[in-house]
Specification:
386 residues; alpha+beta; Butyryl-Coa Dehydrogenase, subunit A, domain 1; Butyryl-CoA Dehydrogenase, subunit A, domain 2; Butyryl-CoA Dehydrogenase, subunit A, domain 3; 47% helix
Length: 386
């Protein structure tokens, strides 16, 4: 078993890290201060990524992507995790669910998205339907060959810049022995469609500049061609394509944890108290040891889950383990780093307080830690009849 990276993988890691350090880091403080990414800056980052050949690198070569494996793409996401999410958003990784496009959808949405001509946003969460996807109230009813959508979505990331949206809505209810279960259908909705409005969402203390939006549907009429996948087949589309978002969060968490750890390590070596570096004190040195041990473990869990996907092996439990452990490791690392920095850790002279604030949401979105633990336990207990 080889735990090392190939020369090509080392090149991928080096290229992306160099890009983040040169094109992302210099703008982070200003984005944090203003809570906004200037349009021209976002477009500049996007064009540089296109020129570099990494735009839509999560898509196969057959549709114009770089054709990276799950493992290689996870390495990309890990390095992007080091930088501000508001800025790395423009690195351009369209939702791979677009591979479910068929017929005219391919020319209208998939291929332009891969080329960077249009951008997408995924819309699933609602005020009353977060982890409980089947609890969504945003619904669509058929009217001849059309569909009419009513309801709302919130916490929609990337909506500010999106040209179209991948929206999950309820299209029916099945009565089952365990109670009613809603059927879900996926729709492609263009910005500017009549009856569809995108408005500003909530002010968040995490990931300044990476804004969330609210989507409102008021008798929004869509043609049958707007259905992505099959009618009532939303869960099938989710299961086939959306598993990778949890690996993305895990990889991001590992990358951010390593960047934060570098600050802690250097500060522990340079900061002098009582005549010696604070890292020599057991209370600090042991925290350094715990941090790197957890980061390495989270890294290996994450890379293993991506590798299993490439091998075609069942990996739902491993992906859940990577997501929960990596996101909680990030929380622990940012907290320990702040403690090592002391009062200065809370000052904006250093990015530590930003890392600390940003880390909190990683345990919530793309499936809370509780949901991941439920997945893990069910995967283990179900075969035993429990």
């Amino acid at each position: 078993m080889n735990f090392g990276l190939s020369q090509e993988q080392k090149m991928i890691v080096g290229t992306v890290r160099d890009f983040v350090e040169k094109e992302i880091y210099p703008h982070e403080a200003e984005v944090e201060r203003t809570g906004n990414v200037p349009i021209e800056l976002g477009q500049s980052i996007k064009q540089k990524v296109i020129d570099l050949g990494f735009y839509a690198c999560n898509f196969p070569e057959s549709v114009g992507g770089a054709g990276l494996s799950h493992l290689d793409f996870t390495l990309v996401e890990r390095e992007l995790g080091r930088g501000s999410m508001a800025l790395t958003h423009f690195f351009g990784r369209p939702q791979n669910i677009l591979m479910a496009c068929r017929d005219e959808q391919i020319e209208r949405y998939l291929l332009p998205a891969v080329k960077g001509e249009i951008t997408d946003a995924l819309a699933m969460t609602e005020p009353d339907a977060g982890s409980d996807v089947r609890g969504m109230k945003c619904s669509a009813i058929s009217d001849g060959s059309d569909w009419i959508i009513n309801g709302s979505k919130h916490f929609i990331s990337g909506a500010e810049h999106a040209d179209f949206f991948i929206v999950f809505v309820a299209t029916g209810v099945d009565e089952t022995p365990r109670g009613p279960k809603k059927r879900i259908t996926t729709f492609l909705v263009d910005r500017g469609t009549k009856g569809f409005e995108v408005r500003n969402g909530y002010n968040s203390v995490s990931h300044k500049g990476y804004k969330n939006c609210i989507l409102d549907f008021d008798n929004c009429r869509l043609p049958k061609e707007a259905v992505l996948g099959e009618i009532d087949g939303g869960f099938a589309v989710m299961n086939e394509w959306l598993y990778a978002t949890r690996i993305t969060v895990a990889a991001f968490s590992v990358g951010r944890a390593r960047r934060c750890f570098d600050y802690a390590l250097n500060y522990a070596a340079e900061r002098k108290q009582f005549g010696q570096a604070i890292g020599k004190f057991q209370g600090v040195g042991f925290q350094i040891a715990d941090m790197i041990t957890d980061i390495d473990a989270a890294d290996l869990l994450t890379l293993k889950s991506a590798w299993m996907l490439d091998q075609g092996q069942p990996s739902n439990r491993e992906i859940a383990s990577a997501k929960v452990f990596a996101s909680e490791t990030l929380a622990s690392v940012t907290d320990k780093t702040l403690q090592i920095f002391g009062g200065m850790g809370l000052m904006d002279d250093f990015p530590i307080e930003r890392f600390w604030r940003d880390a909190r949401v990683e345990r919530i979105w793309d499936g809370t830690s509780e949901i991941q633990r439920h997945i893990i336990s069910r995967e283990l207990l179900r075969p035993l009849g429990a």
